Structures are given as structure tokens and as C-alpha cells.
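Run Calcium-binding protein through structure prediction, thanks.
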Amino acid sequence: MSPARKITPLLAVLLMTLAPPALAQGMGGMDGGMGGGGMGGGGMGGDDMGGGGPPGGGGGARPPQPPKPIKRARFDKIVTDMFRDADTNRDGTVTLDELHALVEARRAVIIKERFAAIDADRNGSISMAEFSAWQSKMGSAATSDDAATGDRSGPIVEAVMPDVGEDRALARLIEPLSGTVIARANTNYDAGVSLEELLAYEGKLFDTADTDHDGYLSMEELRPKGKDGERMRGPGGPGPMGGPPPR
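Sure, done. The structure for Calcium-binding protein is below.
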């Protein structure tokens, strides 16, 4: 037998020996590809599951958190600070004359600032050209009597305002210290209102809303009441009659 014929059977055996793993690898790759397709199908299943989740998902913005309860101590502190702002002579009483003097002083400061904003050449007088230039800067706001003052807060209030920041609930609860409030809160009818009288007057609304008398006003207690005396539901309440039940 020639050498070529002797080698041929040996090569055949080697090929037969190596073929199964190679074939298995090839099929494994196919299985892997099919498995990948299976995983892809799983991804589609994930989409189906995602479709059944709550609306607004997918990493969107978090829903707004409900406001924290208002503590009576915080309420009283804001009222106290408002009183101390008005009690300019620090005698423990705010009189009508004292309040009016404070308002007039603040008005004078604001008027001076507004005048300086128009008097471009700082000569102490306002020419027609300066006034026209200032009005032109105001744009469409110049047609409004309130906005034409240049102060976006509008007219000067005849009262001392409570410093409540952005808390709208507190702004509704605390009445600014005005001449009317001084007259109503002054229970002993002396020259003015004391801090104790003002706290008692302002606190009536807090006490009325604090139905469980725990010293806090919850979001539920702050809800306005309807004509029937029941508290009105805010956004997110139950739907109208006959509609689907709330989720």
C-alpha cells in the first residue's frame, strides 16, 4: 500500500473524531442564536409587563409630595415676627399711629427707588425724555396702572405682611396686620394691640381648622368646606357618579 493510502484512513479517523465537537459547536452557536431570540422574546414580554404598570413610569418625574402639616408653633412665630416688625418703638403695643408711620416710611423708600430708576442723569428731576425712555423699557406693562409704577408687587399695602415665603396655606391663615386688625384684635380697647391679643385673634382661624386639636393642621383639615359643611376633595379624588372606581 502506498504511503498516501496509509495516511488516508488515519486522516479519516481524525476527522471523525474532531467532527462531533465542531458540529456541536456549530449547533451550539445556532442554539445560542435561537436562545438569543428567546431572550429577545423575553424583552418583548418585558414590554408587555411594562405596559401593565402604573402610568407615568419609565423614570419620569416623581409625583408632587403632599405639604407637611402646619405646626401651631410655626404659625405663632410668624405672627410674632409680624408684630415685632410693626412695634417700632418696642413698647409691646402696636398703635394705629405707629402702623401708619411705618407704612409711610416704607412708601417713601419705594417712591425714592422708583424715582431713581427713571432719573437717568441723576439731576434730581425727571424730563419727558427720561420718562418716555423708562416707559418704553416697561413695554406692554406701561399700559397698566399697577405695572406702570415699576414695582411688580403692585400698590403699596397699608399693612405689615406676614413672612410666609411660598406657603400659600399660611398666607390664607394669617391676616396682615392692618388698621382693621388692630381694631378687631384690641379686646381691652386701649391705645393699641398687644402681642397676646394679636396671637389670640389670628389663632382663631387656626383653632377652628384644627378639628382634632393636636396643634397641627393637616392637608385634610386645610381643605375648604362645601355648602353642606363637608370638606371638598382636591385633585385625585373619586370620579363622578357612574364613572370607573378610583385606582
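The domain at 70-141+157-217 is CATH 1.10.238.10 (Recoverin; domain 1).
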